[in-house]
């Protein structure tokens, strides 16, 4: 088995030098350059989109989303922020602050 099967591409090998040239200029040797990959990996989202489960059965294709019962109403001490104006928010915040009790101190 050759090295190119492990790396999947061409390998650049430095040319051989005669003995006198190798003594004066040391060579780092084994410089591998991978030019291109024949089988690049998919990125995560592309892989999940390709391998996601598909609806192939007719009963599964015709299936509708689940219908859940409506949520119960909020407790009376809760208020929905989107249903009141900014003036009412200030009033509610001030009433909550005035009704709050100071924590007991231990002395």
TrEMBL record:
Domain of life of the organism encoding this protein: Eukaryota
Region (Disordered): 38-73
Pfam families named in the record: DUF5323
GO molecular function, one term: structural constituent of ribosome
CC annotations in GO: chloroplast; ribosome
Classification via InterPro entries: Ribosomal_cL38
Compositional bias annotation for Basic residues: 40-55
Gene Ontology BP annotations: translation
Name of the molecule in the record: 50S ribosomal protein 6, chloroplastic-like
Organism of derivation: Cucurbita moschata (Winter crookneck squash)
